[in-house]
């Protein structure tokens, strides 16, 4: 069989035995090679961010993966099957056709009307991502992306912010920018796809302005109008639970107060990395 | 100090405390490596084995950990092939346990066989009629499969997944994991069977010799069945132990319940098959070789109590507990039953290895007794220490129990 193995004779047993095991070796090697080739294809095709989000989404606790229509009470239990990308969801499309929510969709023109929810500013003219980012269509066709008020209060005055350079492509549910505060280093998920054309630093409030891809901006996957309040109510509950769990506070009943401007500073003993990971959907 | 490497949101002890935990195990491992080194350099005269008592503590350890590690292949089979989604909660732990068991067994075998530089001979000059060749091929291939299955667990480490190459490779490999689960099932299946077959074909040892189907003696099938039965029990046992040590809930009860049901059912089938096999052996196989079964049990301490302990106490009793919903719902009963089932398979492997060799078979033979030397014991303990260390590091830095965060959050809810 092999060189220098002179005494070996092929027989039915050796065909069967060696055939079976070398087939197994071939299958294992092929599987490994296939995974490597697919990984190379993903890297070359810039699919890393999509894969990162899918991987993160699957790691989220089941309670955090709920469908947006559970938040509004249209379903009792439903796990989002599309990793919060409702653009691919037939159920969402069907529900939206009939929903009265459609009437409350924000205007796509600038000029926001202020809307205060639980003492925080959630202007009605914006679309909200469940990772605490907002998107606002501008009159020149671009879209501005920023951190919503709860997200901003969670991070307070950041220790560092890493904004992408102009020309960078961002995609919905991919990383828009990174923020560091205390021991927490989190990525803020981009609510939309597009190419970064401008960024704003600390003096102007951190934001990105992106140019939508050809074919225009699709915002169906983002929360808006009447959906925002129930979502935020759930987020406040989640925050309270997380703070309790991470040693930030003792279990307490909500008293209707308003979140402070810098929550991180108000809870110096809490594991802020864990709190931010939970709230910004980065397990 | 190492917080950046620990999964976000899970609680782990401080680094000094972790170092304190691993220090004695590391010391034991170093001592064991010294013992193994002595055996490899000076030869097997460092052990109390000889030409007559050629299988000792190491082979007993090998057979036992391989059987207990069967939870890896069986859980993978149930999750990825039969789609028992509840087992997602324990699959990573099962893979780590499988890897520890198989690599530990292979390390012990390397010392036992000796001449590690000639390890490749078995692949180059295979004797396809030997069960041992089948064992070698299966254990090598399955260890490779387990290493590949372990890779996604490692690559999911918080720091490693920041590297895009690792992230996408882990993602793509995980999508193909069902292929590896299938291959692993095939390999482990034959490996367990071949280990059993090794004893069943010993015509010169009527205590072990069994009849069977085609080329496979009944022990081939009994080893597979017993390993598949206790694999889930060992996962219950280890998970409970980790929960006890870390003082936290790691797995939802429904996963335990499913594992217990599967283990109980397979254990019941195994007990039935083992009973039938024993009856055939007592009434037909053994008399045909000129022995009455009672003769095997005249040599103390190997009395009939062993048979009772193996089949009834560590077989039928845990099977009944695991199959009774009210009993398995109680933690103490569940853990006791799982521990009994695991002890049963260890006792079976002990009997097959030690009792088989200790009993005289020829008129001029004597009953042999065997006590392992300190070098053998040291090597044995090194495998145990290695297992604890690999599991401890995996638990600290990787997501061994994916439900842990969720359960911790649940515990925080008032």
Examine the secondary-structure arrangement and name the CATH architecture of one domain in chain A: Beta Barrel
What count of helical segments of chain B does DSSP give? 16
Backbone shape of chain A:
elongated
Shape of chain B: globular
CATH topology of one domain in chain A: OB fold (Dihydrolipoamide Acetyltransferase, E2P)
**Gap between N and C termini of chain A:** 53 Å
Molecular structure report:
The complex is a heterodimer of chains A (283) and B (414). By secondary structure, chain A is α+β, with helices and mostly antiparallel strands. Chain A is built from 8 helices and 11 strands. Chain A has a 6-stranded antiparallel sheet with strand order 3-4-5-11-10-7. Chain A has a 3-stranded antiparallel sheet with strand order 6-8-9. In chain A, strand 4 and strand 5 form a beta hairpin. Chain A starts with 11 loop residues before the first helix and ends with a helix. Helices cover 72% and strands 1% of the residues of chain B. Chain B starts with 14 loop residues before the first helix and ends with a helix. Chain B has one domain. The interface between A and B is large, with 48 and 45 residues.
What descriptors fit this protein?
heterodimer, A: 283 residues, alpha+beta, OB fold (Dihydrolipoamide Acetyltransferase, E2P), 17% strand, elongated, B: 414 residues, mainly alpha, 16 helices, globular
State the gist of this model:
The complex is a heterodimer of chains A (283) and B (414). Chain A has 8 helices and 11 strands. With 283 residues, chain A is α+β, with helices and mostly antiparallel strands.
Layout of secondary structure:
The complex is a heterodimer of chains A (283) and B (414).
Chain A (H helix, E strand, L loop, with lengths): L11 H33 L3 H12 L8 H4 L18 H9 L17 E2 L2 E2 L5 E3 L3 E5 L5 E5 L1 H7 L4 E3 L6 E2 L4 E7 L2 E6 L4 E7 L6 E5 L16 H18 L17 H4 L5 H8 L4
Antiparallel strand pairs in A: 1-2, 3-4, 4-5, 5-11, 6-8, 7-10, 8-9, 10-11
Helix pairs in contact in A: 6-8
Chain B lengths: L14 H28 L14 H12 L1 H12 L6 H26 L7 H4 L6 H25 L8 H12 L1 H24 L11 E2 L2 E2 H29 L6 H36 L4 H4 L7 H20 L1 H4 L2 H28 L15 H24 L6 H9 L2
């Amino acid at each position: 069989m092999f060189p220098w193995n002179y005494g070996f004779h092929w027989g039915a047993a050796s065909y069967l035995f060696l055939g079976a095991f070398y087939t197994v070796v071939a299958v294992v090697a092929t599987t490994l090679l296939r995974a490597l080739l697919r990984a190379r294809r993903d890297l070359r095709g810039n699919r890393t961010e999509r894969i990162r989000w899918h991987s993160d989404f699957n790691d989220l606790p089941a309670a955090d993966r709920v469908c947006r229509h559970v938040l509004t009470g249209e379903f009792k239990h439903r796990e989002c099957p599309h990793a919060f990308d409702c653009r691919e969801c037939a159920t969402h499309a069907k529900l939206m056709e009939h929903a009265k929510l459609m009437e409350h969709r924000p205007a796509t023109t600038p000029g926001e009307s202020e809307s205060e929810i639980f003492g925080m500013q959630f202007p009605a003219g914006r679309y909200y991502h469940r990772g605490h980012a907002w998107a606002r269509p501008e009159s020149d066709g671009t879209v501005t992306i920023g951190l919503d008020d709860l997200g901003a209060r969670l991070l307070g005055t950041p220790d560092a912010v890493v904004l992408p350079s102009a020309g960078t492509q961002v995609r919905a549910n991919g990383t828009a920018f990174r923020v560091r505060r205390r021991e927490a280093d989190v990525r803020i998920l981009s609510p939309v796809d597009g190419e970064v054309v401008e960024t704003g630093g600390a003096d102007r409030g951190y934001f990105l302005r992106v140019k939508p891809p050809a074919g225009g901006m699709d915002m169906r996957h983002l929360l808006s109008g009447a959906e925002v309040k129930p979502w935020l109510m759930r987020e406040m509950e989640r925050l309270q639970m997380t703070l309790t769990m991470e040693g930030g506070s003792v279990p307490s009943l909500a008293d209707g107060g308003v979140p402070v401007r810098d929550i991180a500073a108000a809870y110096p003993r809490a594991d802020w990395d864990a709190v931010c990971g939970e709230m910004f959907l980065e397990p | 100090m190492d917080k950046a490497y620990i999964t976000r949101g899970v609680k782990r002890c401080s680094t000094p405390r972790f170092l304190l935990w691993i220090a004695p195990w590391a010391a034991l491992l170093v001592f064991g490596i010294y013992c193994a080194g002595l055996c490899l350099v000076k030869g097997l005269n460092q052990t109390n084995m000889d030409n007559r008592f050629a299988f000792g503590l190491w082979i007993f350890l090998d057979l036992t950990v391989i059987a207990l590690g069967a939870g890896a292949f069986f859980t993978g089979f149930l999750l990825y092939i039969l789609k028992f989604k509840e087992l997602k909660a324990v699959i990573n732990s099962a893979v780590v346990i499988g890897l520890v068991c198989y690599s530990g067994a292979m390390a012990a075998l390397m010392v036992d066989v000796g001449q590690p530089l000639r390890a490749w001979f078995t692949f180059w000059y295979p004797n396809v009629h030997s069960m041992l060749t089948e064992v070698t091929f299966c254990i090598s291939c399955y260890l490779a499969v387990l290493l590949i299955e372990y890779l996604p667990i490692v690559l999911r480490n918080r720091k490693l997944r920041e590297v895009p190459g690792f992230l996408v490779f882990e993602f793509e490999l995980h999508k193909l994991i069902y292929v590896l689960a299938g291959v692993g099932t095939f390999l482990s299946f034959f490996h367990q069977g071949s280990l059993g077959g090794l004893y069943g074909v010993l015509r010169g040892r009527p205590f072990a010799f069994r009849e069977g189907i085609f080329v496979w003696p009944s022990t081939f099938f009994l080893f597979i069945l017993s390993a598949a039965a206790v694999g889930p029990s060992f996962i219950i046992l280890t998970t409970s132990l980790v929960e006890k040590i870390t003082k936290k809930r790691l797995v939802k009860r429904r996963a335990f319940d499913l594992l217990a049901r599967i283990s109980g059912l397979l254990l019941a089938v195994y007990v039935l098959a083992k009973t039938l096999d024993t009856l055939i052996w007592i009434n037909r196989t053994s008399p045909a070789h000129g022995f009455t079964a009672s003769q095997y049990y005249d040599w103390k301490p190997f009395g009939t109590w062993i048979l009772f302990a193996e089949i009834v106490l560590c077989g039928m009793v845990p099977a009944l507990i695991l199959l009774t919903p009210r009993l398995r719902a109680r933690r103490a009963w569940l853990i006791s039953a799982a521990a009994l089932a695991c002890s049963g398979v260890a006792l079976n492997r002990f009997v097959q290895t030690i009792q088989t060799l200790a009993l005289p078979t020829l008129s001029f033979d004597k009953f042999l007794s065997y006590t392992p030397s300190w070098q053998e014991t040291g090597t044995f303990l090194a495998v145990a220490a290695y297992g604890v260390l690999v599991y401890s590091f995996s638990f600290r830095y990787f997501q061994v129990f994916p439900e842990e965060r969720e359960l911790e959050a649940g515990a925080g809810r008032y």
